[in-house]
Amino acid sequence: MTTTKERIKDAAAKLFAEHGYSGMTLKEIANEVGIKPPSVYAFFKGKDDVFLAIYRDALEGHLLTVKSHFNGEKTARSQLYSIMKSAIDFQYREDLKSKLIIRLMVSPPDFFSEDISSRFAELEKEEYNILCTIFNHGIEGGEVKPLESHKMAISFQCLMDGVFWQMQRHNREEIYERLDVVFDQFWESIAR
How far apart are CA 146 and CA 139, in angstroms? Predict the structure, then answer.
């Protein structure tokens, strides 16, 4: 069962995706949920707090998705493909939050700018560390060419970002086809 707090975040994400940050109010969020506007304050300090919570949830969800496919017993190839595919699945599952993240990254309200930059940097660093570990494991196991894991991790993150932006322009079926093409090309360049 969805809690009122989650319903508020979902409503805010929907309204933000439709109208932008300045084009909506707590009253509209409350109306969307079916509660009185003062009830929002039982869960959040204000509109800024609602959006920070949505943004943080979406980033945390992405990182948890990456971490859930990090398994030293699997091949590097299967871990990397699972990470990329599950990140796409997560973006589709959390469509409204994903759209909110895009808007916030492209044109953040002033009070979000610093928080967005620092939180995204933290996420990228954790993701980068996981990827380096996977590449090092692949090198040690003879599955990956003895290249610099640092460079491979950065390349893989750029590949994931590219697929993410492609998701804004192509339908789901095309994205999964593109995933297979770009992943296979990437893998061929590093496979031993």
Answer: 6
| Token digits of residue 88 | 């796409």
Classify residue 174: in a domain, yes or no: yes
Number of folded domains that form the chain: 1
Residue 97 counted as domain residue: yes
Tokens of 54: 């949505």
Q: What is the pLDDT of residues 57-79, one digit of tens each?
A: 888 887 888 888 788 789 999 99
pTM for this entry:
0.81
| Domain-located, residue 44 | no
Provide the residue range defining the domain that includes 62.
54-190
Rounded distance, CA 99 to CA 33, Å? Answer: 19
In a domain, 130, yes or no: yes
43 touches 8 (CB < 8 A): yes
> Residue 98's CB: how many other CB atoms inside 10 A?
21
Q: Is the dihedral of CA 34, 39, 44, 45 positive or negative?
A: positive
